[in-house]
Write a structure and sequence with these properties.
single chain, globular, 305 residues
């Protein structure tokens, strides 16, 4: 698609909400494109009129050498315009950190791995990982909103690290319920733990669509990233779960009104630009998507971009 800006300027509230919001994960399903195509795409997005919405390039630790083979000639030694990488840890966390250290030392003027994404289901896994993290690396621990959620989030708060929630997948059962998302969000907010989301968030508004790009792919209800981020914003302001549930499950773009002063839902609830910016800085940081084009196309279609 064409990632050049339209003639209309995005509202200040849209700028506050969408700045660096999309971590590009083209290597992962359902896109799962080649490394060559993914780095070429990211280079193009960095030069597009929507580069202000682009976050990190997401890559597994095991593929860092492959990444540099394809990205080496695309980026000059310019720290200001360098690429930030979010790296997915392998099974051996010690080896993952060693690879990142080596990569950063060899490519510091052009590329920087500054976040590490780790799956964790126990307090000990989180604590052991935090103990070996270098100061420059922030970890996002992928945890599930089960009975251990409070203990895991408390451990992240003590260690000064971040959380990650999986909000979808390739099958309908991979999508967490609205109640689970609200519980995760409110638990992180209560502990002052920043978090990100990943998977199943290609579209800004909740919808029923095919879950992959394959012909005859199964369809299912997908959470919208606008619903999710605005729910986090209202949760920060103390709104109760029943209101947040209605917002997350709203499937109508006309329910959301963007202005230079803020974002209104159903004309009764408003987040100011300052509240939105604070939420993005301290709470819900970004979401991972295997497509950068699709979210932009949808935002253009509903008039936000």
């Amino acid at each position: 698609m064409d990632t050049q800006a339209t003639n209309s300027r995005p509202k200040e509230s849209a700028r506050a909400l969408l700045a660096e919001i999309i971590d590009y994960a083209g290597l992962f399903p359902p896109s799962q494109i080649s490394m060559a195509e993914a780095v070429t795409n990211y280079a193009a997005y960095k030069k597009s009129n929507y580069n202000w919405m682009l976050g990190r390039f997401i890559v597994p630790t095991a593929r860092l050498d492959e990444f540099i083979e394809h990205a080496d000639e695309l980026v000059t030694a310019d720290v200001e315009n360098g690429w930030r990488l979010g790296v997915l840890a392998g099974e051996d966390i010690y080896e993952s950190v060693r690879r990142i250290d080596r990569f950063n030392a060899e490519n510091a003027s052009r590329f920087l791995c500054d976040t590490l994404e780790v799956k964790a289901s126990t307090v000990s896994k989180i604590e052991n990982t935090i103990n070996i993290l270098p100061d420059y690396l922030t970890a996002y621990f992928e945890i599930t909103p089960d009975k251990n959620l409070a203990d895991l989030v408390s451990t992240l708060a003590i260690g000064g690290q971040c959380a990650k929630i999986r909000t979808g997948g390739l099958t309908a059962d991979a999508f967490p319920s609205t109640a689970e998302i609200i519980r995760f969000t409110r638990t992180c907010l209560a502990a002052n733990v920043p978090f990100k989301a990943t998977a199943g968030l290609h579209h800004p508004i909740r919808c029923f669509k095919p879950l992959t790009y394959a012909p005859n792919a199964p369809s299912g209800t997908m959470h919208g990233f606008l619903n999710l981020f605005l729910a986090a914003g209202f949760a920060r302001q103390g709104f109760k779960p029943n209101m947040l549930e209605g917002l997350i499950e709203d499937e109508f773009a006309e329910s959301f009104e963007f202005s230079d002063g803020g974002i209104t839902w159903h004309r009764d609830y408003i987040l100011t630009v300052q509240q939105i910016a604070l939420m993005r800085q301290r709470s819900l940081i970004s979401f991972g998507s295997c497509s950068f084009d699709e979210p932009i196309a949808d935002l253009q279609e509903i008039g936000i971009l």
